[in-house]
Amino acid sequence: MANWNLGVIDSAWFGSKYEGLEGLRESERIGFDSLDYFVGFDPEAMTAEERADYLARAEATGLPVISLVCTCLGLTDFNPSVRDFHIRRAKAVVDLAADFKTARNICFVPGEYMFQKRLLPPEGEWELLIDATRQVGQRAAEKGLEVAIELLPFEFAFINSVDSMERCLDDVGLDNVKATIDISHMWLMRIPPKDMARFAGRISHVHISDCDGVNHGDLPPGRGNTPFNEYLSAIRDTGFEGTASLELEFPINPDQMREWVGEAFTSTATLLSDAGVRPN
């Protein structure tokens, strides 16, 4: 049996009474092995006290923090000052991740071609993306971390196919810059499970959530139609061992967030057990 952790991104608790430390503690009570943190702020703007409190919050749960999620939508902005800020912020997220002794990567979410490729030369935007990602990857390598690029299921996303992911990883050319495999995103783009073999040796992290096959969902597995068994088996067969983290958003009723996350844990634990990557 392979050895995967089952984690949860802390944003699952956002907008509920569990947001913050209580949600992290509830994650441990439910049975998760680890946590990911969504970083929706600029770490450079934190005071020393705020940074210490942020790190102490994780220690209070007893669960290791494996990944920090860094959404970087301005890496290719044609305004140099804006682009420079987003690159600095991404590097600051790397530095913050390095403060967690258990962190392995930052989940790196680049944005989209501006103006739908109708105004700016797409190749120029791509070159800016590669340059920015390489800068962040080099900082991560200095800190002993990986950068895990996430594929997005949107028409004008820079990374929205196996081909564009491979091209990005090849063009960046750093061993520590790899892929985040978000299974529902693969399904939304109708990327067949067999194509996971193309990522062998290049998977840093896995995200799990469900969808209806048409709309981005971030639902508990079992509420949509994502063929998890096929994808999980294919990812397992690449030799990946690491963390699969639940990504949950937009519950029907925020007052039932505990039940929503608990349902997702139970269904995902069963899926991982069936795939032979985590004991039941």
If you had to describe this structure to a student in words, what would you say it looks like?
The chain has 280 residues and is of the alpha/beta class. Helix content is 38%, strand content 16%. It contains eight helices and eight strands. The protein has helices at residues 21-30, 48-59, 80-98, 122-142, 162-172, 183-188, 228-237, 257-274, and strands spanning 5-9, 34-38, 65-72, 105-110, 146-150, 177-182, 203-208, 243-246. It has an eight-stranded parallel β-barrel with strand order 1-2-3-4-5-6-7-8, surrounded by five helices. Helix 3 runs parallel beside helix 4 (122-142). The chain is globular.
The outline comes out as globular
Quote the average pLDDT.
95
Question: Could you name the ranges where pLDDT drops below 50 across 5 or more consecutive residues?
Answer: none
Assembly annotation: single chain
Biggest β-sheet, characterized? Answer: 8 strands, parallel, barrel
Secondary-structure element order, N to C: EHEHEHEHEHEHEHEH
**Percent in helix:** 25-40%
Number of strands: 8
- The Cα radius of gyration reads 18 Å
The helix/strand class is alpha/beta
Number of helices: 8
Main sheet: strand order: 1-2-3-4-5-6-7-8
The span between the termini is: 11 Å
Strand content: 15-25%
